[in-house]
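debug: dumping io for the single-chain case to check the tokenizer round-trip. Nothing else runs in this session.
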Amino acid sequence: MQDEQILLNRARALDGEALAEIHNRYYGAIYRYISFRINDLHTVEDLTSEVFIRFLSALRDRHAPQNTIEGWLYGTASRVVKEQYRKQNRFELTALNESLQSQLMGPEQGVEKSMALEKLRNALSSLTEDQQHVLALRFGQGMSIREVAGLIDKSEGSIKMLQVRAVAALARQMSAGDVS
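debug: decoded output
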């Protein structure tokens, strides 16, 4: 924590080495967090870059984070994702899946896999913003309940409840309509 505070102080002074270290230290984690919530990898790259651009702008405008770089970056990433959802809903774009199906997979399995992924995406998008945020940090980033609680400033009990409710809602939605 003290190391992060020193790094933050250097970044406030716009020290190039400190800014590069912040980028190298946090880019992968922020990218994974956003990719857990956004399906298109090009958009994920753009949004991740946007988070770091906003960080640099905040430093220049003297609105830099006070205590934690990591918390500020995740909070900004969450807002950037929300803005992207709003933009997508305005234009109702349909993402094309350009990945190649496995050669071992027949057309039926490919269609079933695509349908299951679409159902999961729809189920995730129906969760509350807090539930999506908790799931992205817990399962997308592998953070502990304590880490997530500290990062988004909620109690550990609240994080557990958000996670339980989100997983239960996903299970209900994923099993709805299945006659297995």
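debug: round-trip ok. The mean pLDDT is 83.
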